[in-house]
């Protein structure tokens, strides 16, 4: 036993003298000083010795342990100092342990989508315009060629504000800003209007009494259905990050003529693939059309001079949540307004 | 609206494409298809007729005409065998229309000797398929003709209509002359309608009625009366086909809350010329199915006959608006398909004559839509427009809002979008006054009643709900609020599990706001709130900028919170922040000379506000004082009862030279003197 101890010491001294790398120090520590190291073995062997020998051997083993620890630490210090470190941390920190994540902030998906959409249109020279949520019936309806007592007023169930005599309402679409903008500007113009709109209707996974719309209006000398299709395809391709085809079907909105319903489809299946109800890969996205002459007229713009048409334009309005729902595969519109952090933190 | 494919086919000559193909064609060129369902050997097509085409397409004939244009099948109208005699007046019936604005046309045909009974099977089946309940042959025929032509008809039992006795009557069965008066109802008049419920309606001057000499016998354009309805004993009938003012019918229908197939068609406006064929068709079917003979000629009130409209169409403008190289020949072909006649006025100019049924076609652009949709929008190639390259103007409001949103994101807040509506009970709970809250006349429910007067209401709820799953909640929102008027608000809410120290919570939320005010370059004062409806007094403050109260910060009251966790909330007038905040950044010289740091301790009364102390220090006008920092507020052992010890770090710096200790001491003395003058006790 005593022989073993002196052998171990000699062997350890030799090995330690040769060590130059920190990794080898770790191995050395494990081999001699570790829980299953050689010194531990010596201590375990003590119990087999007769009592008188056990005491001596025990003392020797303790001595060996302390000596080794001392020289090991000295050597460690040497090596770490050589490397510019003050302390041996190797093996002392469990770098694999889990940690709580640092908190960051989150912008609501509607804000993100609004920014993406307006940024796309900015690249095409569109200006962002904002409006009020409370509107007059003139701007929400009359100025947009929806006369009083016309069935088209029923198309969008309106929240009329008290007192009713004020003829004020919560805007049912962002289109009033078409009229307001045109009143104070001369063509050509290109604008987009993001904003909250209201409809008095029952709520379900696809409907809310409030939602966000993005209105677009482009008026210039030669704006045609063909230009509209090109700009829509570009805008949708950029937003959905894949090539989008646009399809027009007849639609009716009093403030446009001709009027369209817009369907979209991506080459890779894109938005439609993500939609449960995409028929033949096509997905109904929004309403649009060529600005109705009465809308220009109501805003005080002279579209024709002696029969000659000075300018034409298109307008469209799409639901921002609807686009985001398709893009991110969100099944229920109501999630946008519940403000559950488990939802908000996903985006 | 529902349509029967087999029925539609009756008006189309030659082989008609399959139902699915017809539906597709309609979808791309005319109307959206809501449904297509096989029913026996027929197909039920649910067509979402566009509101501006209700004039001509709320009918099988209208849709069949549309299909004929798309498929190339020839459209054929059913032949009528018996001819109604045309005439204006009758000895048997006196017709009086009080206003031709209310009723541009009214026709009545008397048929005597009919046998009322069940309709033949084919008729009953057709009505049932389209959702109408068969009643008796006469009523069913009027309904059938409405579905076929779009013209609502009504059948009266002639014998139940009151008339006046006339001496020399040619009419053998009756010895009286019936009177039909189309007039506004008198206030207080009532009518029971011809339906199972026999509902009684109260009428007034805004409602147009058909009346006999005594009382209303039908609500014009909406529903017939019970008393003059057809029953199994009816022998003599009056068939009405009329045209009513659409706005009048719409308003009456809304007022009475009574929508019928008839009112739906009238309120969308139909041409008075639709009556001629419909009256003839109904007469034909009645004679064929129920027997009877015409008594007298058609009584027809039609003072201003509606004529076909003429619209000028410039072929160059067609090309320009559609962005399509379409030839004049193509345009003319499409007009012929539509059955519109036209005259060539010049090289590019056509004068198009539009049938009276197409009330939707008023201007040149309407015709261009017809050409576009029939040519096919899919055949228009997308081409980017050539425009002047002009960069867009930035919207300052949008940019500012986004910058503030970014700031709170950087502060690790999550952004919320809450509903604009709040429950009715917030008025009491949050203590708002009548008159300042804004709300719709037709709210959805008591839970969605008032427009939100502040963001706090929903944000508190957001915090409470999220605390169930989260250790920490930091949420902000920027949105419109409605208190007296519409304005933009910024709301911030913060809560943590186990955060019991109210002071700590308050100051943590305040520290976020301080970042905002610093970024905006705003000097802010906080004044304690002594009484508030939803904030805890003592732990809440008004936020004052430039002597104006621009917001609140504080601990939400327990009776509103109702959870064991503390919720801290702040709300600011966003419009004010936008108008007063200065986000401009500029370079400031980094000081080259070292600062001198001194500590100052003094005793103050416990009630003393920090802001007061700060004021006293600065009022001493110390030169070179760059910064003061409160590092300790202590009371307890060693401090006199009722007093607090304030410990400050004072930083002095001269940007132009190194400060000497003497210089600094001179300034410090000024401060100390002013503090002492104000009753603070300096600790040496």
UniProtKB/TrEMBL annotation, chain A:
Its cofactor is Mg(2+). GO terms for cellular component: cytoplasm. It is found in: Cytoplasm. One of its GO terms (molecular function) is tRNA binding. It catalyses: tRNA(Phe) + L-phenylalanine + ATP = L-phenylalanyl-tRNA(Phe) + AMP + diphosphate + H(+). Keywords: Aminoacyl-tRNA synthetase, ATP-binding, Cytoplasm, Ligase, Magnesium, Metal-binding, Nucleotide-binding, Protein biosynthesis. One of its GO terms (biological process) is phenylalanyl-tRNA aminoacylation. Mg(2+) binds at residue 257. Pfam families: Phe_tRNA-synt_N, tRNA-synt_2d. Binds 2 magnesium ions per tetramer. It comes from the Bacteria. Its main location: cytoplasm. InterPro entries: aa-tRNA-synth_II (IPR006195), aa-tRNA-synth_II/BPL/LPL (IPR045864), Phe-tRNA-synth_IIc_asu (IPR004529), Phe-tRNA_ligase_II_N (IPR004188), Phe_tRNA_ligase_alpha1_bac (IPR022911), Phenylalanyl-tRNA_Synthase (IPR002319), tRNA-bd_arm (IPR010978). Residues 107-326 form the Aminoacyl-transfer RNA synthetases class-II family profile domain. Its EC number is 6.1.1.20. Tetramer of two alpha and two beta subunits. Belongs to the class-II aminoacyl-tRNA synthetase family. Phe-tRNA synthetase alpha subunit type 1 subfamily. This is Phenylalanine--tRNA ligase alpha subunit. It comes from bacterium (Candidatus Gribaldobacteria) CG10_big_fil_rev_8_21_14_0_10_37_21.
TrEMBL record, chain B:
It is found in: Cytoplasm. GO terms for cellular component: phenylalanine-tRNA ligase complex. Its EC number is 6.1.1.20. It comes from the Bacteria. One of its GO terms (biological process) is phenylalanyl-tRNA aminoacylation. Residues 306-382 form the B5 domain. Its main location: cytoplasm. Pfam families: B3_4, B5, FDX-ACB, tRNA_synthFbeta. Its cofactor is Mg(2+). Binds 2 magnesium ions per tetramer. Mg(2+) binds at residues 360, 366, 369-370. GO terms for molecular function: ATP binding; magnesium ion binding; phenylalanine-tRNA ligase activity; RNA binding. PANTHER family: PHENYLALANINE--TRNA LIGASE BETA SUBUNIT (PTHR10947:SF0), PHENYLALANYL-TRNA SYNTHETASE BETA CHAIN AND LEUCINE-RICH REPEAT-CONTAINING PROTEIN 47 (PTHR10947). Belongs to the phenylalanyl-tRNA synthetase beta subunit family. Type 1 subfamily. Tetramer of two alpha and two beta subunits. This is Phenylalanine--tRNA ligase beta subunit. It comes from bacterium (Candidatus Gribaldobacteria) CG23_combo_of_CG06-09_8_20_14_all_37_87_8.
């Amino acid at each position: 036993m005593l022989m073993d101890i002196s052998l171990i010491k000699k062997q350890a001294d030799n090995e330690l003298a040769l060590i130059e790398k920190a990794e080898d120090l770790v191995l050395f520590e494990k081999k001699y000083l570790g829980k299953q190291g050689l010194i531990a073995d010596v201590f375990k062997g003590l119990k087999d010795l007769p009592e008188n020998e056990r005491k001596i051997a025990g003392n020797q083993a303790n001595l060996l342990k302390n000596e080794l620890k001392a020289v090991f630490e000295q050597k460690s210090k040497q090596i770490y100092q050589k490397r510019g470190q003050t302390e041996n941390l190797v093996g002392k920190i469990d770098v694999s342990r889990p940690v709580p994540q640092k908190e960051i902030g989150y912008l609501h998906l509607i804000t993100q989508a609004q920014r993406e959409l307006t940024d796309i249109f900015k690249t095409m020279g569109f200006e962002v315009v904002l409006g009020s949520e409370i509107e007059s019936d003139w701007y929400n309806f009359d100025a947009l060629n929806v006369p009083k007592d016309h069935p088209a007023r029923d198309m969008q169930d309106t929240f009329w504000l008290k007192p009713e005599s004020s003829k004020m309402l919560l805007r049912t679409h962002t289109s009033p800003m078409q009229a307001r903008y045109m009143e104070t500007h001369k063509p050509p113009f290109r604008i987009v209007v993001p904003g909250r709109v209201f409809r008095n209707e029952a709520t379900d996974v696809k409907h809310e009494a409030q939602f966000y719309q993005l209105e677009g209006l482009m008026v210039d000398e030669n704006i045609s259905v063909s230009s509209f299709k090109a700009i829509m395809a570009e805008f949708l391709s950029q937003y959905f990050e894949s090539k989008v085809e646009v399809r027009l079907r007849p639609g009716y909105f009093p403030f446009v003529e001709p009027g369209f319903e817009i369907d979209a489809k991506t080459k890779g299946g894109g938005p439609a693939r993500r939609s449960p109800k995409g028929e033949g890969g096509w997905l109904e996205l929004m309403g649009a059309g060529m600005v109705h002459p009465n809308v220009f007229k109501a805003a005080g713009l002279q579209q024709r001079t002696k029969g000659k048409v000075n300018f034409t334009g298109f307008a469209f309005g799409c639901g921002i949540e609807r686009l985001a729902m398709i893009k991110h595969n969100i099944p229920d519109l109501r999630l946008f307004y519940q403000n559950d952090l488990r939802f908000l933190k996903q985006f | 609206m529902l349509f029967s494919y087999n029925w539609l086919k009756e008006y189309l000559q030659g082989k008609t494409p399959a139902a699915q193909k017809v539906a597709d064609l309609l979808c791309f060129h005319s109307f959206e298809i809501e449904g297509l369902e096989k029913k026996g050997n027929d197909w039920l097509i649910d067509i979402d007729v566009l509101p501006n085409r209700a004039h001509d397409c709320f009918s099988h004939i209208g849709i069949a005409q549309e299909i004929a244009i798309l498929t190339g099948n020839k459209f054929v109208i059913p032949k009528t065998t018996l001819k109604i005699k045309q005439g204006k007046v009758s000895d048997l019936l006196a017709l009086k229309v009080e206003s031709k604005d209310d009723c541009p046309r009214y026709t009545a045909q008397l048929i005597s000797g009919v046998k009322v009974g069940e309709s033949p099977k084919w008729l009953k089946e057709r009505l049932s398929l389209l959702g109408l309940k068969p009643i008796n042959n006469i009523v069913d025929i009027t309904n059938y003709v409405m579905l076929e032509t779009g013209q609502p008809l009504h059948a009266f039992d002639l014998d139940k209509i009151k008339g006046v006795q006339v001496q020399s009557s040619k009419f053998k069965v009756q010895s009286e002359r019936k009177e039909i008066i189309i007039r506004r109802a008198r206030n207080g008049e009532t009518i029971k309608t011809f339906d199972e419920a026999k509902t009684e309606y109260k009428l007034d001057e805004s409602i147009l009625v058909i009346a006999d000499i005594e009382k209303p016998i039908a609500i014009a354009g909406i529903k017939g009366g019970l008393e003059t309805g057809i029953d199994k004993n009816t022998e003599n009938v009056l068939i009405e086909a009329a045209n009513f003012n659409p706005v009048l019918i719409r308003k009456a229908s809304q007022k009475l809350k009574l929508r019928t197939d008839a009112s739906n068609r009238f309120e969308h406006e139909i041409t008075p010329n639709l009556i001629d064929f419909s009256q003839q068709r109904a007469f034909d079917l009645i004679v064929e199915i129920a027997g009877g003979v015409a008594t007298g000629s058609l009584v027809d009130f039609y003072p201003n006959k509606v004529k076909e409209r003429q619209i000028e169409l410039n072929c160059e403008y067609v090309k320009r608006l559609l962005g399509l190289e379409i030839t004049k020949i193509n345009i003319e072909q499409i007009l012929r398909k539509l059955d519109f006649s036209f005259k060539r006025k010049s090289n590019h100019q056509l004068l198009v004559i539009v049938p009276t049924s197409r009330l939707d076609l008023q201007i040149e652009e309407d015709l261009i839509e017809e050409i576009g949709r029939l040519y096919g929008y899919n055949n228009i190639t997308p081409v980017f427009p050539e425009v002047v390259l002009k960069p867009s103007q930035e919207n300052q409001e949008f940019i500012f809002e986004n910058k503030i949103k970014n700031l709170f994101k950087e502060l690790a807040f999550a952004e919320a979008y809450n509903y604009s509506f709040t429950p009715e009970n917030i008025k009491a709970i949050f203590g708002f006054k009548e008159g300042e809250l804004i709300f719709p006349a037709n709210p959805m429910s008591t839970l969605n009643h008032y427009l939100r007067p502040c963001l706090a209401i929903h944000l508190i709820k957001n915090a409470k709900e999220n605390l169930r799953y989260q250790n920490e909640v930091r949420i902000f929102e920027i949105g419109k609020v409605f208190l007296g008027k519409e304005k933009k608000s910024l709301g911030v809410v913060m809560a943590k599990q186990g955060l019991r120290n109210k002071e700590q919570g308050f100051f943590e939320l305040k520290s976020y706001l301080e970042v905002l005010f610093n970024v905006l370059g705003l000097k802010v004062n906080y004044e304690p709130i002594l009484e508030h409806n939803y904030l805890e007094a003592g732990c809440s403050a008004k936020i004052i900028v430039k002597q104006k109260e621009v917001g609140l910060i504080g601990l939400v009251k327990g009776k509103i919170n109702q959870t064991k966790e503390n919720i801290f909330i702040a709300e600011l007038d966003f419009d004010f922040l936008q108008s007063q905040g200065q986000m401009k950044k500029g370079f400031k010289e980094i000081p080259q000379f070292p600062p001198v740091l001194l500590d100052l301790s003094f005793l103050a009364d416990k009630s003393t506000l920090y802001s007061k102390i700060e004021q006293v220090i600065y009022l001493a006008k110390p030169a070179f004082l760059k910064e003061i920092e409160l590092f300790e507020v202590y009371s307890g052992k060693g401090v006199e009862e009722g007093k607090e010890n304030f410990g400050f770090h004072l930083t002095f710096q001269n940007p132009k030279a190194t400060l000497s200790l003497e210089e600094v001491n001179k300034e410090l003395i000024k401060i100390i003197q002013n503090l002492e003058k104000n009753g603070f006790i300096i600790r040496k």
